[in-house]
Amino acid sequence: MLRCIQVHRLWLCFFAVGLLFSSKPERVAAQSSESISSGAYQTDILIKSQRLDAAGNGARVARYGITRRDVEMIEKTLPHAAATVPLRSISTEVRYAQQTVDAPVIGTDAELANWSNIDVEQGRFLTRKDIKVLNNVAVISDNVAKQLFGGENPLGKSLKIKSNYFLIVGVTKSRPMSQPELTTPFSVCVYIPVTTMRARFGDLEMKRKSGAFSAETYEISEVHVVLKNPLEAKQTALKIRKMMETTHQQQDYSITVVGK
């Protein structure tokens, strides 16, 4: 009987130690998830396309700004960058049934959610698979959801952008921008894969102003560069500027060291 009690006590001791060690990873994982979802935008360098007055050079279509080749060169020449996130934005009408809203449609990749203050309230954000296979999926901000769907759950429904339909897979929670230099309207917008945007809409953008139409071509609106060591932001920005000077005949872009 005494031996049984001793064995029982020994088993309880092992059980308690097991609980102690098995519970730690759960707490660490929870803290890690919380820090990502509630973190401020971590952009160190912001590169933006900039249309110049003479961007058209007398042509009917103005061509300017950051190219996909620029993004590839930045990724290859900056091994110390934690992420290089391209965005292409267009302003257009977004429709669901009879409801419409004018909102920026932002083509981007899956990395944006990891390095921004974007919180996914419902569903999910864009994935690498969405980018790779050019899925017609969209993530909408909660403000867009309210205007198009009211109190109805938007997940699984399709909205229309120009002549294409996109399946809604996620809803983001609106939050104020943490850095004034970042002008991308994350609080009221629609996200789609940047590869899908190119395939469905191309690089040509038609605009109407004061009753007249204008056309412009740009591949990327802006690029957010996140560095492993933010202290290297200034010297990295200089490297990017020198690199882009070799591929651009005019300075149709701006480079800003954010928050420094």
Question: What would the keywords be for this entry?
Answer:
260 residues, 6-stranded mixed beta barrel, 3-stranded mixed beta sheet, 13 strands, globular, disordered N terminus
Quick recap:
With 260 residues, this protein is of the alpha+beta class. The chain has six helices and 13 strands. It has helices spanning 2-38, 68-77, 128-133, 142-149, 194-201, 233-245, and strands at residues 45-49, 61-63, 81-96, 99-108, 119-123, 137-141, 158-161, 164-173, 190-193, 204-209, 212-217, 222-227, 253-257.
What does this structure look like?
The longest helix is centred in the first third of the chain and has 37 residues, at 2-38. This protein is α+β, with helices and mostly antiparallel strands and 260 residues long. Residues 1-40 have low confidence and may be disordered. The protein has one domain. The protein is built from six helices and 13 strands. The chain is 32% helix and 33% strand. The chain has a six-stranded mixed beta barrel.
Percent helix among the residues? 25-40%
* Largest sheet: number of strands, sense, barrel closure: 6 strands, mixed, barrel
Given the helix and strand composition, which structural class is it? alpha+beta
User: How many domain units?
Assistant: 1
Would you identify the regions where 5 or more consecutive residues have pLDDT less than 50? 1-40
Number of helices: 6
Number of strands: 13
How would you sum up the global shape?
A: globular
**How far apart, in Å, are the first and last alpha carbons?**
72 Å
